[in-house]
Design brief:
Helix 4 (about 115-130) packs antiparallel against helix 5 and helix 6 (about 180-190) runs antiparallel to helix 7 (about 200-215). A hairpin with a 4-residue loop joins strand 4 (about 230-235) and strand 5. The longest helix is centred in the middle third of the chain and has 20 residues, at about 200-215. This protein has helices spanning about 40-55, 70-85, 90-105, 115-130, 135-150, 180-190, 200-215, 220-225, 270-290, 310-320, 330-340, 345-355, 360-365, 375-385; strands spanning about 1-10, 10-25, 30-40, 230-235, 240, 245-250, 250-255, 265. It is elongated, with a radius of gyration of 28 Å. It is built from 14 helices and eight strands. The model is unreliable at about 60-65 (pLDDT under 50). The protein has three domains: about 1-70, Double Stranded RNA Binding Domain; about 70-165, Tyrosine recombinase, N-terminal domain (DNA polymerase, domain 1), CATH 1.10.150; about 180-370, hpI Integrase, Chain A. By secondary structure, the chain is an alpha+beta fold. Keywords: DNA integration, DNA recombination, DNA-binding. One of its GO terms (biological process) is DNA integration. It comes from Enterococcus cecorum.
């Protein structure tokens, strides 16, 4: 039994079929398959008949059906069906975007056995000139070709033999605001909340509260945007992080963090708690006036959660009105860490508070904040072992 349908692709209309081949006697599972890329219905039906012949010839229901994949894009579609069940929706969207923008335009219509090492090398060279993440793009190509080898569609993976261009040198030093710069930013944002206009006051308090929380909690921006009021204990002055805001094909939704270490409960200072409490009152009143309800701490007037880019655009505009140079939202997390270290907090405590998976990660990121540490270490050794 088979169903034949048409579908559209960039260069025209094609035919595909999905068929049921029976039940595997060993596992009891239904065996079905799909074939795509036929120019006519007749061609698709001929392929279906040949599939049945080949299938029975190879042992019927006790053997795997022949994989009729010829082009890179057909392989990608087959691979994606299985791979998409192993990753989060936000990760899947990122992968699809890389293939759509960078990989499929170069290799989509090419036959798998015709992709040469030279063609792979040319593509990698071009990606390296315009993409900081060219190595990631190359790795996905290599992963697909390895999959093709496992399906016995090709004999070798051309992407394994490419010479990777040297990555662009990056400034690995983290960027953060000094204590005085942070104070300037917060003072200015707070001054903008003094307005008789309730709508304007609500808008300004949003950015004041968000920046204050980021700087005094060390939260990642998407952790902050996923917060609900139930995550905040105003009596104990604590905040629980258990989710992050992820982008999906249908908008935004909270999802679990990538690592267990990101799930944590941290203490907050009294002033930050006061600001959050005031924001809760202001925000719920404005939502009520707009006929909306939401338990999300940072949502818009329509109770929708949004991408942080729009919020940063507004925050950047406000910071630019001071003498401080805007960086990005993540800089407030780095600022929080620098203030913790300056106040004498241990590396282990910082690791736990920031939700790093290991203390090595914390050290790798923040060691350069202490340029004099090596000199002090040697001085301590010389003073202790004075012989």
């Amino acid at each position: 039994m088979a169903t034949f349908t048409k579908y559209k692709k960039g260069d025209g209309t094609y035919w595909q079929f999905r068929c049921y081949l029976g039940t595997d006697e060993a596992t009891g599972k239904r065996i079905s398959t799909r074939r795509r890329g036929f120019k006519t219905e007749r061609e698709a039906k001929q392929a279906y008949k040949q599939l049945l012949i080949d299938y029975e010839k190879n042992g019927g229901l006790n053997s795997k059906p022949t994989v009729n994949i010829k082009t890179f894009e057909e392989l990608y579609n087959l691979w994606l069906e299985s791979y998409q069940t192993t990753v989060k929706e936000s990760t899947l969207l990122s992968i699809k975007r890389k293939f759509r923008l960078h990989i499929l335009p170069k290799f989509g219509n090419m036959k798998l056995d015709k992709i040469s090492i030279a063609q792979a090398q040319k593509a990698v060279n071009e990606w390296a000139k315009k993409l900081d993440t060219f190595d990631v793009v190359n790795s996905y190509c290599s992963r697909l070709m390895k999959y093709a080898i496992s399906l016995e569609l090709i004999d070798k993976n051309p992407f394994e033999y490419v010479i990777k261009p040297k990555s662009k040198d990056k400034d690995d030093k983290i960027k953060f605001y000094t204590k005085d710069e942070l104070q300037t930013i917060l003072n200015y944002l707070e001054s903008r909340t003094h307005s008789e206009d309730e709508l304007h006051r609500h808008q300004e308090y949003f950015y004041y509260c968000l920046v204050r929380l980021l700087a005094f909690s060390g939260l990642r921006i998407n952790e902050a945007l996923a917060l609900e009021w139930s995550d905040i204990d105003f009596n104990a002055c604590t905040l629980s992080v258990s989710k992050t805001l992820s982008i999906t094909e249908n908008g935004f939704k909270p999802s679990t963090p990538k690592t267990k270490a990101s799930i944590r409960t941290i203490s907050l200072d009294g002033k930050t708690m006061q600001i959050l409490k005031a924001w809760r009152t202001i925000h719920k009143e404005m939502l009520f006036m707009n006929g909306k309800r939401s338990e999300v701490v940072f949502c818009d007037m329509d109770s929708h959660q949004k991408h942080y880019a729009g919020y940063w655009y507004q925050t950047e505009k406000r910071i630019s009105e001071t003498d401080v140079l805007p960086i990005n939202f993540h800089a407030f997390r780095h600022t929080h860490a620098s203030l913790l270290f300056a106040s004498g907090v241990s590396m282990k405590e910082v690791q736990t508070r920031l939700g790093h998976s290991s203390i090595q990660m914390t050290m790798d990121i923040y060691t350069h904040l202490f340029p004099d540490q090596q000199t002090k270490t040697v001085e301590k050794l010389a003073k202790f072992a004075n012989f």
